[in-house]
Predict the structure of Glycerol-3-phosphate dehydrogenase [NAD(P)+].
Amino acid sequence: MPAFDTIGIVGAGAWGTALANAAARAGRQVCLYTRDAQAAAAMAAQRENRHALPGIALDPRVTPTADLAQAAACDALLLVVPAQACRAVAQDLAPLIAPGTPVVSCAKGIERGSRAFITEVIAEAAPTAVPAVLSGPSFASDVAAGLPTAVTLASSEAALASALCDALGSSTLRLYFSTDVRGVEIGGATKNVLAIAAGIVAGRKLGASAGAALVARGFAELTRFAKAYGGRAETMTGLSGLGDLILTTSGPQSRNFAFGAALGSGAATPDKLAEGAFTAGVLVEMARARDVDMPVSAAVDAVLQHRLTVEGAIEALMARPQKAER
Ligand SMILES: NC(=O)C1=CN([C@@H]2O[C@H](COP(=O)(O)OP(=O)(O)OC[C@H]3O[C@@H](n4cnc5c(N)ncnc54)[C@H](OP(=O)(O)O)[C@@H]3O)[C@@H](O)[C@H]2O)C=CC1
Ligand SMILES: O=C(CO)COP(=O)(O)O
């Protein structure tokens, strides 16, 4: 298995920039791609991504670029753009990468319309790539600051997943490997929708008891969905499932939680990426298609689609028929 000396990061938002520094800290040479040439030049001159991750110096091993081919020539690529942009970016990468190059999805979502998981999107759009996924409880600002963080990296080939963990891991970022690609991506996509629900509960000041009930019942539906779509139970209780659910339902450092809190309090929603708002509808469609009961996610979707008010959604959840706890 190659050592993956060079890592191309495609997408220089908060998470892409944090992962660039993390990979550099692990000893890799890193190419950090943004589609914005001016932003690449500013990052190169200022050695900082002032737009997405202000106050964090770029590691000297990180080279910003607006040349996709330069990033695509690296030994392994991390795809760090919003989930709904992954297909377009993977299509652009397809003619540029060497066959067999690992392309690791770091996005947390499901493609709308196609109902495809992001590793499926990569496999369709860049058929010569080897798809993988990195997910787990990891705020960009924490990782960038070098705070201790642990995540999961999954590929269908255990040896590849393990080699990528070696390439990206450092004393501050610990990676566990897995072959449960589907389970890892389901955890990351679903917890964002549940984080919006947790934010609504907090924004509406429904109390800590309601918040805890929401996380527990949310985890139950996340696990049901994963089972229906081929994820493993042990992955759901791991970093990319329960771990990330706990992190993102804990407070406003999560953009999804902050988005939900604004909905709950009636404030304007922040102008920041909240992936759960894009995932809720497709998640609920996919749940219905396999007869999976996901009342919390369905309530979030109904609020986002203005089919229910926040008040109406809470009433409907509390009025559900009595059932056994499972
Ligand atoms: N932030 C975090 O703590 C974490 C985020 N994630 C996940 O990572 C993904 C990205 O999040 P994050 O970095 O925070 O988001 P940001 O909003 O900070 O950045 C998104 C980046 O993607 C770029 N982008 C969007 N569309 C395209 C496109 N079509 N082609 C090229 N670049 C594009 C944007 O470029 P431009 O500025 O030019 O629009 C921007 O640089 C999400 O799925 C998120 O859930 C996962 C773990 C942690
Ligand atoms: O995925 C994340 C942490 O693991 C980031 O969550 P938010 O996108 O809600 O900020």
Summary: The chain is about 50% helix and 10% strand. The chain has a mean pLDDT of 97.
